[in-house]
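Hi R.,

Here's the input for the flavin-adenine dinucleotide complex you asked about:
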Amino acid sequence: MGAATGWRLAARGAQVVCFDRHSPPHSLGSSHGESRITRTAYFEGPWYVPLLQETFPLWRELEADTGTELLTLTGALMIGSPSAEAVTGALAAAADYGLDVRLLKADEVRRTYPAHIVGNRDVAVLDAQAGFVRPEAAVDAMIGRIEALGGEIRRGVAVSAVNHRPDGVEVVSEEARETFDAVVIAAGPWMHELVDWLPLTVERQVLVWFALAKNGASPLTPGRFPVFIRQADGIGDVYGFPTLDGASVKIARHHAGDATDPQHVRREVSDGELDPLRRYVRTRLRGVTQRVIRTVTCMYTNTPDGHFAIGLHPEDARVTVISACSGHGFKFAPVIGDIAADLACEGHTARDISHFSLTRFLEPEG
Ligand SMILES: Cc1cc2nc3c(=O)[nH]c(=O)nc-3n(C[C@H](O)[C@H](O)[C@H](O)COP(=O)(O)OP(=O)(O)OC[C@H]3O[C@@H](n4cnc5c(N)ncnc54)[C@H](O)[C@@H]3O)c2cc1C
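And here is the predicted structure with flavin-adenine dinucleotide in place:
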């Protein structure tokens, strides 16, 4: 979110300085692990749809400006019972905005996407404007644009305080105290260090790559296998991607992790964490073995209601605060960066961010 903000600010001519305690792109926060789902028929709330529609041309602009491949369109399948939230919510968002989706019955899922093992009562919504973005390459490309447009990246510099001074906003790091006209705080899982009044919780997540079976042509390639989210009985929400290396696929559970401290994340993955996913590939996927090739841990920073927290600091309109995670923020990075640039430069944005209000969690006074 910080890199996206810097990119969109630099693109409109602002002088930008970005601080990062690590050296992005890195694998210590939330923006790593090869791929992130993007989609448009957003079951989490139809108000996300106009924001999502803005992201696709922005990803293409970033690709063109940096000569990198960031966005791959594969379509997305939301699989579950007809009453699953992923199914009904995607259909509702599609109806509100006239989106290109199709509802597939079990037979059609089996015929068209034979890698998915579905029950007779299962259905799937196919969202056409969907696929995946590559997080490390995207962060790198955004940083590349910031630097190309004259901005500065301070790597390995942790900000210890943001102070509200009459002459500007003071950023304190171990290197210096510097004053800026405006500051955007997007510290991901470390947000509580700089903004302690948001009720955020940090959740450890596990990503697992399973080996593909070696029996002939795989139907799990990006051209034939859409990204998917499945709301499955007994295991919760599982999502996955087509193979990017021809040898493995990445599968994960959504919101199945423990609370963690971003400075002390357990990086080893236990059998207890792998077993539900092994069971998933054994019972719900064809062409995938239970052999684990690689695991990665990552962090969600969750708000209590699962929607983002984006807005001006309630006590200082020169400071913008962004927590756009809750496990689904990456796809929005270009438009959230642009919203943050609006807020930092103009003090307001024309986009509807009313669902992301920072103050919705605060107790009313009196
Ligand atoms: C396993 C996993 C799967 C996901 N899948 C999807 C998906 O499929 N689709 C999707 O849209 N989203 C997905 N998400 C969510 C998405 O990745 C996040 O919303 C997004 O990465 C959040 O980015 P961020 O900038 O807020 O946090 P981060 O990427 O963690 O960035 C925060 C940065 O702030 C720096 N920092 C922190 N404190 C300080 C400080 N005091 N001073 C200086 N620098 C500091 C850190 O070093 C870090 O670089 C997933 C997340 C995870 C973990």
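One thing worth noting: The chain has two domains: 2-29+136-192+305-359, 36-133+201-302.

Cheers,
M.
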